[in-house]
């Protein structure tokens, strides 16, 4: 453990507290007890369990009726560092702009670089959108780093690995065995068009009919596409589940799929690779960093049926031994993003100028 000789104060201005975010906070607090974390949030995910004896404070955003009140609270803490997720809250930006004069400010982002007119406009107005508020940029993977470079941040002011799967997924990792010819796919996410799950299920249906097999898919989540998905007999709809229930279903599945049309990151990819599942992933997902095609999964074009079907078939046709190696490779790759690195990054942001 790196020693801190004096107490420090760090503020997070955050939208929704998720299980994986609170997992990072718990881990950091346990390792750096002299650093006090203060978290202001808008909402909290229903399955989050807060440690009442933890070395951090939680305050809901609605406790501050005016943005000046929020600033006054932050100022009273004499912070060494303030981290703000995204740009969605004007009161958070108000605090960042004013407090930037007395402490370091960091934007936490999953925005990814795209070769688009929107990206061009963001680049032109990058000072007004980002630089006047934030000194540094903490992203997740290479596409977030590319975005940060494009809007004018230097490499030394860009950090990676902000999203980390909760410890329970690393603790539950195992090598999957793969029995028989039938594959059980797994999808976790919102059942909406942008997640592209209906197209993926239709691709499985095409393969099932052509090969006269019945590959299945476990679907965890909710959304307006539920009824359409249930029309396919090979779909096992599981609804919304907690972490332990998700792990139980994942252990009964063979491969995780993330077919999104667009996905800035996708923490679920990290969670599933940590469990040892191979991955079939859209090329438009930021968490493609965790999938090495031909090593622990395959990448496809989410808008091309042939590309999707080819990726699915490649996995189905792998010999058992190779599927098992894919599982081991997923576990190994998942460890490239971890809580120790998260702790070191936050500590570095606190102590460096």
What does this structure look like?
This protein has 353 residues and is of the alpha/beta class. Helices cover 39% and strands 19% of the residues. The chain has helices spanning 19-31, 67-76, 90-99, 117-124, 126-131, 142-150, 167-171, 197-211, 226-229, 243-250, 267-275, 305-316, 320-334, 339-351; strands at residues 8-17, 35-44, 56-60, 81-85, 104-108, 136-138, 158-159, 184-188, 216-220, 235-239, 255-258, 279-282, 297-300. Strand 9, helix 9 and strand 10 (235-239) form a beta-alpha-beta unit. The longest helix has 15 residues, at 197-211. The two termini are 21 Å apart.
Spatial strand sequence of the major β-sheet: 3-2-1-4-5-6-7
* Domain module tally: 2
Shape: elongated
CATH architecture of the largest domain: 3-Layer(aba) Sandwich
Mean pLDDT: 93
Largest sheet: 7 strands, parallel
Compute the number of helices. Answer: 14
Q: Which percent range describes the beta-strand content?
A: 15-25%
